[in-house]
Structures are given as structure tokens and as C-alpha cells.
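Many introductory courses stop at the sequence. We go one step further.
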Amino acid sequence: MILAFTLTLIAGLSTGLGGIISVLSKKQNTKFLAVALGFSAGVMIYVSMVELFAQANESLSLLYGIKRGGIYTAVAFFAGILIIAVIDKLIPEKENPHEIKHKGDEPMFPAVQPGQTNTAQLFRTGAMTALALTIHNFPEGLATFVTALKDPEIAIPVAAAIALHNIPEGIAVAMPLYFASGSRKKALGFSFASGLAEPVGAVIGYLLLRNFISDALFGVVFAAVAGIMVFISIDELLPSAHEYGEHHLSIYGFIAGMAVMAVSLIIL
């Protein structure tokens, strides 16, 4: 329980690292972002399809037979995709941290300086992005927590991948708030607070599901988590990596992420 909560907390609070990057630099390191986003996508997709989906299928097949177990695994996988897709659909595009907004090697808000007056729109953008990110982080927190309860060895790379993809989201929260208010403290506070939704979502989800925890539930959750992570990788991480930097940088990062994940699973 302690390990599961700790991993979830670390993954969530990595949004604060994005906030720190925002207040220390007026420009994005777009090449680093491209590689990091591609790397995170590679980790997510590899662990989802090689470990999470496979374990879910094995668990459910043992309980219900190969055919029914395979059907239940596939249904849970696409249910996870549907859940995160619906969340994305319900959040307005302008405030959605999963939508690509900036690219190139230029400041995110070149027309203003930190603390400049008449920046209410920037402040609203940052605040609404924080709210949208909070909503997104609830299922991610539950996914990390439940995975850690069942298999800590798999949960560590899952938490690492989610942490990596939370860093640019923290930037999306902190940057407009910093330019609107000129306050590093306020920008960092919002970026860290939005990440707290992951451990909070984990606790709430666990309290709701603890009486129903079984091998069947773990199998369904593993498959759903795989679906969520694959959707995030394809819908957000890879397109963002491509937009932020050169095409090949994102691909190199993606392949490196899969390779690191493969090696770590073999060693573990």
C-alpha cells in the first residue's frame, strides 16, 4: 500500500517539475521535449502491450477460459480507450493539456513579459488547464495505484512513463500563470496541485473498489490501463513529440523508450 501510494504520488507531482522548468526558462527546450515525449510513448506502448495486456489476458483466461478470457481482455482494453477518449472530448480544446498548442523554438507567450498587466486571459488559460489536467489525472492515478498493488515490478516503469508525460503538462499549467502574474510561487503551486489529483484519484478509486478486489478485477484493470496508456501515447505524446521537434528525434526517443523498457523487464 505504501509503495503503491508513493509511486502514484511521485508520478503525479512530476507536473511540478514541469512548473519548475517553466519558471526557470522563457523558452522551451523543444528538442528535449521531443525526445522525452517520444521516450515516454515508447515506454507506455511497450509495457502496455507486452506486460499489462498479456498479464490481463493470462489472468482472465485462467478464470474464464481462453476464448472468454480473451474477449473480456479485449473489451476491457477498448473500454479504457473509451474512458480517456470521452474525458478528452468533454474538456474544451483550448483548456485541454493534451492538445498541441506550441511548437518551434520560440517562447510560449512571446507577446508578454511575466507580470505584465491585462493578462486575465493568460491566467484563465493556466487555471483552466490545471482543472482539465486534474480531471485527466484521476484515472491515471488509479491505474498506477492498482498496478502497484498487483505487481510492483510493472508499476515502477508505468509510474515512470506517466511521470515523464506529466512534465510537459506541468509546463502547460505553469507557463501561462507565470506570465500572467509574474509569481513563480503561484505558478509552481498550481502545477504541483494539479498533479495531486493522481494520488487523490488513487485513494478514492481504491476506497470504492476495495470490497471488489479480485484476480478478475485486476485483470480487467490491467487491460483498461493498457488501453488508457496506448490512447495517451497515440493521441497526445507522439503527435506532441513530432510538433515540438524534428521527426526523427521523436522516433529515436520512442525506440529508446521501448528498448529501455525491454531491458528493464528482462533484468527484473
